[in-house]
Design brief:
mainly alpha, 0% strand, transmembrane helix, 49 residues, 73% helix, transmembrane
Length: 49
């Protein structure tokens, strides 16, 4: 059984430390997508409701 535990331990990736700047940079595409969806809804959907 010790072999199996060693193998599982090897597969676990190390936790990545990210700075706040890196987190914001990763979140920007998602934020931009949400803003774009909001604009589309405002201009194309709401006038018909």
């Amino acid at each position: 059984m010790p072999d199996r535990q060693e193998q599982e331990g090897e597969r676990r990736p190390e936790r990545v430390k990210r700075t706040w700047g890196e987190r914001v940079a990763l979140a920007l595409p998602l934020i931009n997508l949400l803003v774009a969806i909001h604009k589309i809804v405002d201009e194309w959907v709401l006038p018909f409701v």
